[in-house]
Amino acid sequence: MVLDLVQVRRRLLAERDEIERRRAELRAEFAGVVAAASDVATDDEHDPEGATIAYERSKTAALISQATDHLADVERALRRLDDGRYEICETCGATIAESRLEARPVARTCITCAQRDPAGRRGLYASS
Ligand SMILES: [Zn+2]
After folding, report:
1. How far is the centre of ligand 1, averaged over its atoms, from the C-alpha of 81 (Å)?
2. Among 33, 36, 88, 91, which residue's Cβ finds the most Cβ atoms within 10 Å?
């Protein structure tokens, strides 16, 4: 085992902090958009910006849910580290290639399983 798990953990923790910070920003942004939308509603119901606001709101909501998914991936990777299963494929039990974990620290299946089961690609958005 050559993979530096201490380093991996540090990287995952930093990533988790970053995602949490980003998600807090998005939530603040979302609250701002919602507040702006209610201002528009009281000022002028027929404001043409209404559609833009709805779009902004759904876009921000999508980003928040993406961040939440990513956070779950990172937390799961941290749990796998704690359990000593970090390098073990969750599907077939094989050792996940070090290069794969370096490229994608939240990977939980080996490359063979990832390729065989496209449904297992959920959560791969970060690198795709
Ligand atoms: Zn596998």
Report:
1. 17
2. 33
φ, ψ (nearest 5 deg) of residue 123: 95, 0
Residue 111 CA to ligand 1 center (angstroms) comes to: 7
Domain range annotation of the chain: 5-121
Beta carbons within 8 Å of 68's beta carbon, 6+ residues apart? 23
Report pLDDT digits (tens) over 63-86: 999 999 999 999 999 999 999 999
Quote the mean pLDDT of the chain.
Answer: 87
**Chain segment 80-118, per-residue pLDDT in tens:** 999 999 999 999 999 999 999 999 999 999 999 999 976
CA 115, 117, 123, 125 dihedral sign is positive
Å from CA of 96 to ligand 1 middle: 7
CA of residue 20 to ligand 1 center, whole Å: 30
